[in-house]
Design brief:
mainly alpha; 151 residues
Length: 151
């Protein structure tokens, strides 16, 4: 993304997570989430536009650095920042509302939409918990961790 706000937020996230032993929230994670969302949407014959999928994936954690700094909810911070970025990128109101809802509720299993469900699932599946060096120290519950495919 060429957007200046997106790029500055990503730089701040990278700096904030430099010493982090747990899952990171850099561009690799965001692109993994986007790819998984797109594949799952195609497999489910879901007609959500790929631009909407990629926007939601790329923006769902954009507020992480601010949340670290202010000790606030990253989803709420991400939704606020995402709304500014989406406006600058000329998304229309309906698209923006759909993306913001998914970003805001991507960790809340009580709230849902098709996009939100795709995002929540892909976010979890993008994590290679089964191969993580910090698996034992992680505070995620066993049922939240991605255990991988049984072979």
């Amino acid at each position: 993304m060429k957007n200046c706000l997106f790029r500055s937020c990503m730089q701040e996230i990278d700096e904030s997570e430099k010493e982090r032993i747990f899952c990171g929230h850099g561009i690799e994670h965001l692109l993994s989430v986007a790819r998984i969302m797109r594949i799952n949407a195609l497999e489910e014959n879901n007609d959500i536009d790929k631009e909407i999928i990629y926007a939601a994936a790329l923006l769902h954690d954009i507020g992480r650095a601010r949340a670290y700094r202010l000790h606030t909810d990253h989803a709420a911070e991400s939704a606020e920042i995402a709304s500014r970025i989406l406006e600058e990128c000329d998304f229309d109101k309906a698209e923006t509302d759909e993306i913001i809802y998914a970003v805001l509720h991507h960790n809340d299993s009580e709230k849902s939409s098709e996009l939100c469900s795709l995002l929540r699932n892909a976010d979890r599946l993008s994590r290679n918990c089964f191969a993580c060096k910090a698996y034992e120290e992680c505070n995620w519950s066993e049922n939240k961790k991605n255990q991988g495919v049984s072979v």
